[in-house]
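Quick start: what a row looks like.
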Amino acid sequence: MQITLSAVSGLFVGFSLGLIGGGGSILAVPLLLYFVGLQEVPDAVHIAVGSTAMAVGLNALINSIYHLRRRNLSARVGTLFATFGVLGSTVGAYVGHLTSGTVLLAAFAVAMVAIGLSMFLQRKRRQRPRRLLHVAL
C-alpha cells in the first residue's frame, strides 16, 4: 500500500511542478509523512526531506527541459538562481542533518505559513512586469 500511496503522491507533486513550477516540497514532505505513512519509520523527517529533494530535483529537471524546448526559459536567471541555490542547499542539508526532526517540521510549518501569507497579502501589480533578464534561447 505504501508503494501505491507513494506513486499517487509523486504523480500529484509532479503535476503541481509541471503546472505551476512549484509546490514540490511543500506538498511532498507532508504527503510522504502523513499520506504515505513514513512517520512510522525511524528518522522519518530526514528521510522525507531527502527523498523529496531528489524527487523534486528530478521533476524540475524534466520540467526545465520541456520549457527549454519551448523557449520559456531564461538561461541567465535560471543559472544564477541554481548556482546560489546549490550553495544554499549544501548549507541547508548540513544544518538539517544536525537538526532534530521535530524542529525541522516546526520550521517547515512556519515557512509554509509565512510563504502562504506573503503570497496572499502581496498586492497585485497593475503594470505588466518587465522582462529584465530574459534571454531567448
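That is the whole record. The mean pLDDT is 84. Residues 2-121 form one domain.
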